[in-house]
Amino acid sequence: MRWLLMTKDIKKIIAKVANVDVTIITDETELVADLELDSMDVLDIVTELEKTYPIDIPGEAMTEFFSVEDIQLCVNELMAKND
Predict the structure, then answer these.
(1) What is the CATH number of the domain that holds 74?
(2) What is the mean pLDDT of residues 44-66?
(3) Are the CB atoms for 68 and 11 separated by under 8 Å?
(4) Domain count, the chain
(5) What is the dihedral of CA 52, 56, 60, 63, to 10 degrees?
(6) Residue 6 structural domain
(7) Which of 5, 14, 34, 50 is the most buried (most CB within 10 A)?
């Protein structure tokens, strides 16, 4: 259940930063290729995620954010460490 809620929240954050409708975002959506986001946009996503969840996303993790699923997996892993 937590995974589903996180997925919805993450997609909403990405949609807001990318200025697109959340319905076009899937787990496979690529941040650069599909949404044309740049590194500053990814930083905005990370900032919003850190405000939403009790996590700190390391800088090196951001370099691995290619798709929505990559972000979901990272957030889930960091949340599990906090449990």
Answers:
(1) 1.10.1200.10
(2) 94
(3) yes
(4) 1
(5) 0
(6) 2-82
(7) 14
- The first and second tokens of residue 77, run together, are 């892993």
- Residue range 5-15: average pLDDT? 93
Residues ≥6 apart with Cβ < 8 Å to 18 = 25, 35, 36, 37, 41
Q: Tell me which DSSP letter residue 5 carries.
A: H
Alpha helix ranges (H) inside the chain = 2-18, 39-52, 59-62, 68-82
Angle subtended at Cα 33 by Cα 32 and Cα 37, rounded to the nearest 5 degrees? 25
Predicted local confidence at residue 2, as pLDDT: 67
How many C-alpha atoms does 2 have within 13 Å on its Cβ side? 8
Give the model's pLDDT for residue 11.
Answer: 97
pLDDT recorded at residue 75: 94
Radius of gyration of the CA atoms of the chain, in A: 12
d(CA 29, CA 47): 20
